What does this fold into?
Amino acid sequence: MRTTTTRRRSGRSKFQRRVAGGLALGIALLSAGVLYSAVAPQPQVAQAADDSQLVAQGQQVYENHCISCHGANLQGVPDRGVSLIGAGSAATYFQVSSGRMPLARQEAQAERKHPLHELDTKTPEGARNVDALSAFVQANGGGPERPAEHGMALRGSNPARGGELFRMNCTSCHNFTGQGGALSSGKFGPPLAPASEEQIYTAMLSGPQNMPHFSDRQLTPEEKKDIIAFVKSVSEGQNSPGGNPLGGIGPVSEGLMVWVVGITALVAVTLWLGAKA
It folds into this structure.
C-alpha cells in the first residue's frame, strides 16, 4: 500500500515539475520576444522602402537642377559639367549646400554663393532636397559618403593637434588661419570661416577644385574632426596663431608687417635726428 502511494506521489511530482518547466520555458520565450521587439532594428524592407523614396525624390531634384550639365546618367556633358560617377554624397553635399552648384557661369573656379531656396540646407525643405539629391548621386555613382554626424559633433577634442595637421596639409592654400589665398590660373584657396563643419569635412573627403582628397587612411576621421576644431577656434576668435591677429592674416604676414612698420619708424627717427643736427 505504501509503495503504491509513493509511486502515485512520485508520478504527481514529476508531472508537476514538467508543467512548471513548460510554464517557465513559455514565460522565458515570451519575455525574449517582447524584449527583441522593443530593441530590434527597423526591418530591412521598411528601411529599403524609405531609401528608395529618398532616391526617387533625389532623381526629381537632379532632373530639375543638374541634368543639363551632368547628363541623364551622371556621365557629364562636355564643356558644361563633369561626370558625377564616383563623386559620392560628400561632393554633392559640399557643392550644393555651399551654393557652388548649380553654376552661375563657367569660370576658373566655382565660388561660394547663397544656395537656391529649394536647396538651402537652412530650411527643412532645402535640407530634405539636398539629402535626397546626395542619396541619388550616391546610389547611382558611388564615391565618398557624407559623415553621419552634424554640427558640433564634427568638432574634435584636440584642436592643438588639428592645428599641427592644418599647418602640414592646408596652409599652402588656405593660409595659416584659414583666410584663403590666390593660386595659379585664376583659382584660389577660399576662406574657411563661412564653411560649416559638415562642409569642411565633406571637402576633405571629396577634394573640390584644386584641393586634394584626404581619405581615412591619410587623415583619420578623428584627425579630420581635430582640424575642424582648430579652424573653428580660429574663425570664431578663440585662437589667434601668431599673437595679435591683425585681421587673421597669419603669423608670417603679421611678422612681415611688424618688420616693415619697425623699419619705417627707424628710418623716420634717423631722418628726424639728421635734420635736427
